[in-house]
């Protein structure tokens, strides 16, 4: 028996599925399952994180409910996945953050936005906060660049450390060789599989959302969200290089690279999360881990808020609203960073690690 | 009086949907009546995984050619010649085009599943399994404008002089109604889930049979047709039956309760006696004889017995093997006579000749001096823990059916073809399968004759 009830159930299902195997062409979970005859906690957490929740195996399964075998792989693995996030969280004492995650994330977001507004108000006089500031260095009248850079670097570095420690625990638990180098081929394969969401695909027809027709657009919305996020990150990195290498200070004109990248990314970060949210609300509850509603929506909301405040800031940066909007945007980004290791963001990290492991296993088996 | 359709299809599985789609593509208005609720739609199709079709060259998913002639020889061997050659050869010829036609209806293929490599050349596997295949057919049918009703129990057929006029339908909410149609396609399966009917031929033994599919395959349409003058075909005791785990549910255990470990051990009955050569032939060619073999044993129970050395030689099983550190301990758990089981295993071990084990060919590991012999893959059972699976006959589908001609048209008693009644799938499988079975044949019969029946039914409705 396993450590938790959900892992016991996942074990039961994998035993059923391993004696059937009809779904092996749908995704990576079932071929990975077939490489095993028994399942440890780590194996099950690995399979849970390999699952992209496309729903095809539920619609295709002759044993899904109301059948007495009650096989519901997407839901079971969704719950196991969410529990694995808490189990591997670093530091351990913060693993409780995954329970009531939506509430926690909203509180942190509200607090950090309030802190930036208050901070600006306290540090600057009203004329600066609500004044019209344009031209290079306008943002830094509200908050000195070095302070901004230090604060956000610290937040990001903490997030990276916490995520690295968490994924290390996961990596060890799923039986991957620790210390051994990941071969380039497996890494490249995993980057491709993650980058194109190869397994969010229902085995070729698309995913299942509200009914038994594969019409799900989550893959598109996820691409918009993910690549939007990536573009925004690149935009910020380019701006940092501008600042330190050439002494060019933000804000930049609309045609300049950081603004173009940030705008494209921002559009993705607005449309993508809205689409994901709508899909989440329409989805057949049978496929969902409904108790994690807050975690799912909390993360989507944070991404949307980041994109939305960023775009507003761009549009209104030459008005008196710039000050408050900058505070809101920085608050959103700060909250996003520090909650990264304790919310839905981690799904990407664990899933990527699982894809690397899967690519390795395929190579070893071949 | 309800409305009138060109083609009425009774049944909701592969054969029924192929018929409905083919009739609709032929321009007919089509109503499908499925007796089961939506989740259980499709009868045995929901449990299938592949189809055996002839092909002259390897494809993306098939590893090599499987000619019409080879298919025919396989059919001849498994049925022991109990088949209608003209009809069977026609089916095999038509099966070649089904490989493409079924894809046009939205079904997707994949290479043979892990653990089934021996079928990789002959059988095309459905991506996602039989229910995925069925879902694709339903989506296509509905897109084309085929009407489908679930929980639609047909309680009577109005047939005059070999001509179908109407079906009486009982619906859970809307009550009884009559549905008229110009042509009928009966694709409602066999009677394997009707234990009372099985008892007419098997006696009380039928109580110990497990039914691999849904409880809805009661043969009520078959019975109505035979009672109203359609000629019957096939031996009523013949069916596709395999040995499945005795711990499986009475109905709908599907594929996962099967055992493919027979060739790795021995099989004994409740008296701890062996009763058949466990190493007769490559497993996929002979697995389907074990249902009948177990059915013929006392209390319809048997035990596959092997030892710890072969546990990983076959696919993992739903139910774990029952284990004992000694033969006597295992016998105790199985409620067999320990002395008898020890004697059987000791004699078997003593009869095993040295050889080179290879389960993929007919190897030279065999016994000498015992009856029955184990002619291949015989190795001593001597490494504890000793392990066992209890097995019972698991019936997939029965072969008693309606006689049809090459147009899938039913023949009446006396041999006259019906003017407007067609049959496809398990309800007429007995035309091709007099006995025996080879993997994937049921789906071939369903798709080929379903497509033909739909086409002919639409053609009749047009004229």
Structure description:
Chain A has helices spanning 5-18, 29-34, 41-50, 56-60, 73-87, 101-123, 126-129, 145-173, 184-195, 218-246, 257-282, 293-315, 322-339, 346-365. Chain A has 366 residues and is mainly α. Chain A has two domains: 5-87, no CATH class; 96-365, no CATH class. The mean pLDDT of chain A is 93. Chain B has eleven helices and 19 strands. The longest helix of chain B is centred in the last third of the chain and has 22 residues, at 441-462. Helices cover 28% and strands 22% of the residues of chain B. By secondary structure, chain B is an alpha/beta fold. Chain B is elongated, with a radius of gyration of 23 Å.
Number of domains of chain B: 2
Query: Structural class per helix/strand content of chain A?
Result: mainly alpha
| Tally of alpha and pi helices of chain B | 11
Proportion of residues in β-strands of chain B: 15-25%
Q: Give the count of structural domains of chain A.
A: 2
Taking the alpha carbons of the first and last residues of chain A, their distance comes to: 31 Å
Strand segment count of chain B: 19
Structure summary:
The complex is a heterodimer of chains A (366) and B (463). Chain A is mainly alpha-helical.
List keywords for this structure.
heterodimer, A: 366 residues, mainly alpha, 2 domains, 14 helices, B: 463 residues, alpha/beta, FAD/NAD(P)-binding domain, Flavocytochrome C3, Chain A, domain 1, eight-stranded mixed sheet, six-stranded mixed sheet, 19 strands
